[in-house]
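Troubleshooting log. The previous run stalled partway through. Resubmitting the same two chains, unchanged.
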Amino acid sequence: MTCTENEGRIIEVLLEVFKNKNLVAPPLAPDTVLERLGLESLDFAQAVIRMEEITGKDPFATGADFQIRVLADLASLYD
Amino acid sequence: MLSQFILEHSTAHDDEVIVTPHTSVGWHQLRDQTLLMVAAGESLRKRRVGLCLGSSSQSYAVLAALDKLNCDSFLFDERLAMEEVIRLASNLRLGAVVQPQKRNNGSALEIREIENEENGSGNSTVTILTSGTSGQPKAASHSWESLGRPIRRGTNQSAPRWLMTYRPNLYAGLQVMLQCFADRGTLACPDSEMEPGSVVQFMTDSRVQYVSATPSFWRRLLMFANVEALRNIPLVQVTLGGEVIDQPLLDRLKKIFPHARLVHIYATTELGRCFSVSDGLAGFPISYLRQPLADGVSLRVQNGELLVQSPNSMRNYDRYSSGQRSGGDWFHTGDVVEIHDDRAYFVGRKSDLINVAGSKVYPIEVERVIRVIPGIADVRVFGKTSSIAGEVVACEIVPAPNQDPEALKEVVIRNCRSELSSHQQPRMIKLVTQLNLSSAGKTLRTKAL
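Second attempt completed without errors. Output:
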């Protein structure tokens, strides 16, 4: 499965989060269900900060209510 | 008081009083400069006057002259842009802003009149402008008596040589200057932007014996300067203040200066000097909380916060200050302490508290873990706004020379993971070449947005 640029970025950022936690990351793909990754909300906070550093955007800062299930949903917020 | 130190003390020999990397000024010259400033400043008598204060003999001569002229002196950092000084002075309803004449013509004093001035108190006072986080400083008014009260006369050897590491316009800088002048000593003033190596060279050349500085100052010196050269400076006393003091730093200083008296001081702009600790241990004995201390200071802890009553306090905030005092007799310091066994330890400022998804984290709890990692020169922990968690812990680390930064970052992550809970762990780690210090020489605690 090919990735969009932002999906690729999210995967890299999540791999870093797993590495920091000293955990082996499961295979990550656009259709990976995020809540099954076993990450806590602070890990996602970290990923969002990292994405902001990379893209200059923080889609969550608007306070909008997002429906995010899979990795591609999260990545699309940065498109 | 300052004018008395300078004008009324007669001495046969003309020892040096102020040395900088470029100049040396004797007591006679400082007295002459002060007399010149008094004459030049006659129009300022009993008025509210702003002074851009540097650590030069001319600057101190102006301050002494304003004392002699019974002015209410408001002290500004000389590095502040003049437009900013005028703006602040105008808000404070001052009558004029002065500084030593930089050009070589006319009067010794450069005076800028400001409209709309409030009447002076008629007494000689000193107002210190605190580095307010909101941009508008608080203006803490002291009498010269309250500033001079903590000065110990005659306990030091005669003519001690002090290193000036603080900004001269802030409380700590005034204390060092007054203590030094009261003992007829010499104030060695390095340039404010000096590299650590040059500072040590200057300390050696000017033969300093007393150093009063923030922990941040020392950490920078210990990491980047030649420790052997430091060891060769025969210091009599090492005084720390202005920030939380940790045990590893005290131990390190004790090792480098085994013969020096090692003291740490708790003081604030508003309360003045509160107490000192000289047993070489971080924190302070809880016996300090039980009864008033020798010079009349009382301490108490309420909801973890240190409250103080101090006879060394300011008189009040100036009536045009941005902050005004609230509450009763006890002053709320904003410093949080924890008590373990028979000792009280500072854990940080209430305002530094990082709220990570509802869990409270003090930067110092995290800094303590990172600071002991070999290869770390310095660290600053702060709150970073997070759209998910409110705030998360972030940090900046300064690698020691010849360290692989990426490898060091991994060690930091690993140690934090094993020693801190999830909400305490830094979620953003930046490698920097040096930390930014505030004008008071303290590590900046500003939160990142």
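Takeaways: The first helix of chain B runs from residue 2 to 7. The first strand of chain B starts at residue 16 and ends at 19.
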